[in-house]
């Protein structure tokens, strides 16, 4: 599957699990655990920006 290296799943309540992955070409991937063949992809830089923004509270309104 495109040489994606998946991290361990991040799970919330009710077993809502997501996985993050990367490949050797600088792409990042997000998928629902168990459905890694259907994913959202962007650059690693975009993933890093999203993680920093979430940690900074910019997505808190979604909670």
Task: Give a concise summary.
With 63 residues, the protein is α+β, with helices and mostly antiparallel strands. Helix content is 19%, strand content 33%.
Overall pLDDT score:
91
Low-confidence stretches: none
Secondary-structure element series: EEEEEH
What is the tally of beta strands? 5
The chain-level structural class is alpha+beta
Distance between the termini: 32 Å
Helix content: 10-25%
The multimeric state of the shown protein is single chain
CA-based shape: flat
- Strand percentage lies at 25-35%
| Most strands sheet | 5 strands, antiparallel
Rg is 12 Å
Count of DSSP-assigned helices: 1
What does this structure look like?
- 19% of the residues lie in helices and 33% in strands.
- The chain has 63 residues and is of the alpha+beta class.
- Strand 4 and strand 5 form a beta hairpin.
- The chain is flat, with a radius of gyration of 12 Å.
- The mean pLDDT is 91.
């Amino acid at each position: 599957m495109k040489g994606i290296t998946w991290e361990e799943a991040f799970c919330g309540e009710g077993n809502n699990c997501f996985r993050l992955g990367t490949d050797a070409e600088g792409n990042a991937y997000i998928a629902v655990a168990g459905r890694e063949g259907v994913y959202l992809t962007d650059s690693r830089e975009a993933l890093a920006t999203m993680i920093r923004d979430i940690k900074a509270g910019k997505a808190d309104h979604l909670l």
